[in-house]
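Reviewers of the previous submission asked for a worked example of the structure-prediction workflow described in the proposal, so we include one complete record here. The input consisted solely of the amino acid sequence. No template or homolog information was supplied to the procedure at any stage.
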Amino acid sequence: MLTEYISAALHEARYELLPDGEGYYGEIPALPGVWADGPTLELCREELRQALEGWVVLGLRLGHALPILDGINLNAPVTETV
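From that input alone, the workflow returned the following structure tokens.
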């Protein structure tokens, strides 16, 4: 499920060429704070994947609600207390 979530998130990534040939910038708009840059598009994509993985792990450890992407929900089920 985690692999599918990461793939779905990366599918939504947007990349742009930085001015003056300084490399590439990438972000995933649906996930605030998940961005990366790199001298090549391939390295930017790899950096973005690493940033995304860290963002997901930290969010889960802190109990943050993660956005549902492509129907994939990594959030713990909500249990009702009586």
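The beta strands are 14-17, 24-27, 35-38. We consider this example representative of the routine output the project will generate in years two and three.
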